[in-house]
Amino acid sequence: MTSVLEESVWRLMHEALELYHDSPPATDQLQHHLSRFDEPLRIAIAGPWQAGKSTLVNAIVGEEVAPIEVPDAEQVFTWYQDGPEPHATAYPAGIELPVARTANGLRVDIRRWQPAPVNDLLVTWPSRALRNATIVDTPALPASGDKILRDADAVLYLTRDGRGTDLEWLESAQDGAVARAAPVNVILVLSRADEIGGGRIDALLAAKQLARKHHRDHHVGSLCLAVVALGGLLALAGRVLSDRDFSALSTLARTPRLELEPYLLTTDRFVGEDFPALVEVETRIDLLDRLGIFGVRLATTLIRTGTGTDTRAGLAAELVRRSGLSELREAVGRCFVDRADALKARSALTALESVLRGEPRPGSEKLLADLEHTLTNAHDFRELRLVAALQGHRIKFGAELETEARRLVGEGGVAPAARLGVDPRTNPGQLWDLASQALARWQEQTEDPLLSLEQRRAAGVVVRSCEGILHALSS
After folding, report:
1. What's the start-to-end Cα distance of the chain, in Å?
2. pLDDT at residue 72 tops 80
3. For 116-163, how does the pLDDT look when each residue is reduced to its tens digit (9 = 90+)?
4. How confident is the model at residue 123, as a pLDDT?
5. CA 373 to each of CA 9, 12, 78, 124, 370: distance values in angstroms, whole numbers, following the listed order
6. Whole-number mean pLDDT of the chain?
7. How confident is residue 307, by pLDDT bands cut at 50, 70 and 90?
8. Of 278, 298, 444, 455, which is the most buried if we count CB atoms within 10 A?
């Protein structure tokens, strides 16, 4: 542990362990969070029923590993982590479960755990996508909300359109000193993007425009670091498209367009009789399961009219590109993976706050004060707060300065080149010059009498970020 924030958290957690040495529940919780600093980041995929959580898990992993069917009465969290071979363990009993790797992905025999109660299922699966983070497939909100806040470092929050009651849980998650001080560990995902606009062929474009609108919204911007539109089925299809799928879609594409189009309007027509293409009903049903009716229309159009989509690999790549999965991966990288240490520190402080408030005793008030001091002064959290304030338009600069401020505090990535908005291959000397110029520019803003106190304080955060860039370049 090397950063100032990590050192502060480490000290606070050990002081709390000493204070609560005679309380097994408290020490277990504190030790658990200390050990998590050496583990991958935990990213929960959360949302209401049928938001597309398991579909997104599969799209990220690149294979069909979710959902694992559990009894209706069970509220089971399924944790996916990288490992050399498929493996599954049910907790708290620690029961090893038979796992089969099939052509369609993962099959786990859940009968082994019954009648023992199970809260968590840990699945090991060899996947490059899981090397930097453990992905958690969660039961539907709101029932799973408290456990998500307790166990996850970051959240991909899935919603159909980001309106109305879909944001209520995010609003409620801002309770507590840690949540208020570092409020943003969420990416909002419009997960059924292909359904926006009645499933028209331009639905994904409309969804991406809606995502940009949400990102600029004062309220939504204060609750999340990014808003991404995703066609979940399309993303998964692009990741697992088979030769059989491509062959069937190619047959559809070769059918005269005017003959085929009426049968691509509804699922009933698509699987009905008198179909104009030589594609079996069972195959058409499989295509619907894989792509949805929107995806079938899009894939057929791409094969018929596109260039580079006349092969399975070419079509798969284009489906992934159009789905929004690449944008989501990029957002996860810059908002979560790049800030993994700060997010894990945030989780540890959340656990510490819970212990101190849930089991007060002499000495806990001082630790609470130290915790709040850490929250106030940790630059990592100041950056997160400023990102949220700029996105929510609670603090404003001129357009050019605001764009630079958001970049310098790490909204688009925390590497020096990303903060400075230049090519990653830029040489260190040029980076130093650019960082020095930015530092001088923002030092002037901290002293500008025409700016409000809040603006000057925000400029001070940007100055500290510039100093951090120079420190990183000199080390």
Report:
1. 16
2. no
3. 788 899 999 999 999 999 999 999 888 888 889 889 999 999 998 777
4. 93
5. 11, 11, 36, 39, 5
6. 89
7. confident
8. 298
Instruction: Calculate the alpha carbon distances from 222 to 173, 174, 179 in Å.
Output: 12, 10, 12
What is d(CA 124, CA 135) in angstroms, rounded to the nearest whole number? 11
- Between CA 73 and CA 96 the distance in angstroms is 21
> How far, in Å, CA of 65 to CA of 195, rounded?
24
Signed CA dihedral, 139, 145, 148, 150: sign only: negative
Exposed/middle/buried for 403, CB within 10 Å: 0-12, 13-18, 19+? Answer: middle
Radius of gyration over every alpha carbon of the chain, rounded to an integer in angstroms: 25
Helix and strand counts by DSSP (H, E) for the chain: 22, 11
84/344 Cα distance (integer angstroms)? 25
Structure confidence at residue 389 (pLDDT): 82
More confident residue, 71 or 441: 441
Q: Are strands 99-102 and 186-190 parallel, antiparallel or unpaired?
A: unpaired
Within 8 A by CB and 6+ apart from 282, the residues are none
If 0-12 CB within 10 Å is exposed, 13-18 middle and 19+ buried, where does residue 92 land?
Answer: exposed
Distance CA 189, CA 336 (A): 14
> How far is the C-alpha of 222 from the C-alpha of 210, rounded, in Å?
17
Angle in degrees, 0-180, between the axes of helices 399-408 and 379-391, rounded to the nearest 10 = 150
If you search the block for the tokens 């299922």, which residue do you land on? 121
Cα→Cα distances 470→105, 431, 459, Å = 47, 9, 17
**CA 201 – CA 292 distance, rounded (Å):** 13
Pairing of strands 154-159, 186-190: parallel
Helix (H, G, I), strand (E, B) or coil at 131: coil
Which whole number is the average pLDDT over 168-194?
82
- Whether residue 98 contacts residue 55, with contact meaning beta carbons closer than 8 Å, is answered with no
Distances (CA, A) of 431 to 301, 365, 387: 45, 44, 22
pLDDT band per the 50, 70, 90 thresholds, residue 1:
very low
Per the confidence metrics, is the pTM higher than 0.85?
A: yes
- From the list 403, 200, 189, the residue with the least C-alpha distance to 301 is 200
Q: Quote the pLDDT of residue 216.
A: 79
Give the type of residue at 461: V
* 172, HSE (Cβ side, Cα atoms, 13 Å): 11
Chain Cα centroid distance, residue 194: 19
Cα–Cα distance for residue pair 74/68, rounded to 1 Å? 12
